[in-house]
């Protein structure tokens, strides 16, 4: 089932970790509707601007989110967030798409996920109807725990 011009429900619910652990990652109707809006307002236009993008993580059921140690209020659990990883497509793709989104798109939260000063390991982006304050953060590890700080 298509949920956007370029994206499918299968892509939204796909998770190797859920499959490996035998965890259901079936999205509810509200999360599917949120993902449709995310596609319409961010992902489809981003795809048209950039070209093919690889979404490494989209929807996460509560059980999956807990299994991977995700944030308790993760936007992934409502279908409002994706992680984009372009390492296999373009060596500088993660850095470039981070800055492209930052300058050209509305979003709730954009995160430079780990990596180094040259490029993130992946890019997290979330979007909500009527609630996109364009928060830009950087995820780092501090004493073995993930910490978020303002991106400079």
Question: Can you describe what's shown?
Answer:
With 152 residues, the protein is an alpha+beta fold. It has a single domain, classed as Muramoyl-pentapeptide Carboxypeptidase, domain 2 (2-Layer Sandwich), CATH 3.30.1380.10. Helices cover 34% and strands 20% of the residues. It contains 5 helices and 6 strands. The protein has helices at 9-13, 16-21, 29-50, 62-67, 93-104, and strands at residues 55-57, 81-84, 109-113, 122-126, 135-142, 145-150. It has a 6-stranded mixed β-sheet, covered by helices on one side. The longest helix has 22 residues, at 29-50. The model has no long low-confidence stretch (mean pLDDT 95).
List key phrases describing it.
152 residues; alpha+beta; Muramoyl-pentapeptide Carboxypeptidase, domain 2; 6-stranded mixed β-sheet; 5 helices
- Supply the CATH class: Alpha Beta
CATH topology annotation: Muramoyl-pentapeptide Carboxypeptidase, domain 2
Query: Into which percent range does the helicity of residues fall?
Result: 25-40%
Largest sheet: 6 strands, mixed
Give the tally of structural domains.
Answer: 1
- Classify the secondary structure makeup into a structural class: alpha+beta
Give the topology string: H per helix, E per strand: HHHEHEHEEEE
- How many helices? 5
How far do the termini sit from each other? Answer: 39 Å
